Amino acid sequence: AARAARPGTEIVFLPEIQNAEMASLAVEAASSCLVVASIQARRASQTPAAILWHQIDPATLAARLRLIVNQRLVRRLCEACRKPAQVTDRVLKMMGLTSDEALDLKIHQGGGCDRCGPLSPGYSGRVALCEVLEGTTEIAALIASGGSPGEIEREARRAGMSPLRAACLARVGQGITSLEEFQKGNF
Questions:
Q1: For the chain, is the Cβ count within 10 Å smaller at the N or the C terminus?
Q2: How far is the C-alpha of 31 from the C-alpha of 21, rounded, in Å?
Q3: Which of 81, 77, 82 is nearest to 182 (CA)?
Q4: Half-sphere exposure of 46 toward its Cβ, with a 13 Å CA cutoff?
């Protein structure tokens, strides 16, 4: 969003939006500059509702919202001790994976080594998973008309948004993180 701003655009970084005063300030400032702020929401599609909960005018928010980035950190498997692992279809089903998601999913686990150390055996560092929701005309119309997070989610996916669940499963399949991190993240 900062790169897409016109040259000379003022960028304001705000702390987490936790109250009506901060929400109002963020939306008001967005009329004249780029505002970057955080808010607690489980999914990108739930962010507008979280802001509107603070009594913000839906039409004003819809007109000023440009981009929502939802991110989570998951532990990265240690490259030195990472090995392929076998997981039964029954376990994958118990974890809530659909047959399409489980199809050809390559699972890896870290065994622990000198490189990753005893504090977090099998893991070394973290990797960010992101879901990016663009404030398109269709999304703005949904926000302005009081659309539900589910409706916003469906429209965002139709426009190309990839959810955190898919991002995590892709990293699992690439051997970057583990199935345990997928389960722990409750995607």
A1: N
A2: 16
A3: 77
A4: 7
- The Cα–Cα gap between 176 and 82 comes to 9
Q: In a 3-state reduction of DSSP, which class is residue 184?
A: helix
Of the pLDDT bands very low, low, confident and very high (cuts 50, 70, 90), residue 3 is: low
Tens digit of each residue's pLDDT (9 = 90 or more) over 61-89: 999 999 999 999 999 999 999 999 998 88
pTM over 0.90: no
- Structure tokens, 111: 């065994």
The token pair at 39 is 């808010």
- Using DSSP, state whether 85 is helix, strand or coil: strand
Report how far Cα 80 is from the mean position of its chain's Cα atoms: 28
